[in-house]
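Standup notes
- DV: blocked on the single-chain target, sequence here:
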Amino acid sequence: MDASLESLARRLRFLGYDVIRLAGARLEEVVAVARREDRTVLTLSARRPRRWADVPAITVARGDEAGAVRKLAGSCGKRYREGTHVTRIREWLEHALGRPLAPPGGTSGPG
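- DV (later): unblocked, structure below
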């Protein structure tokens, strides 16, 4: 993933997607890693050198993270399990709030 998409990367990871971000990497370096690891590049850049034409890439619209999440969640078949971070975050939040959180997909009561 393009380094400029860190916020989107966090949201996709929270949903269980296997996302890596290469801090400080040029687009060519990101594409090289994607080719080597059989990944799809997510980037803000529409620029795509011909030598990387065999590497799948999705251009994400700037400023539309919600649209990007909907688009990727609807067409990406590489979803993974919830990582241990989800359990840890829920436990921390429950401790901080002093009450259990509603189950995922459930509704919470008043207050």
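- Follow-up: The chain is about 40% helix and 5% strand.
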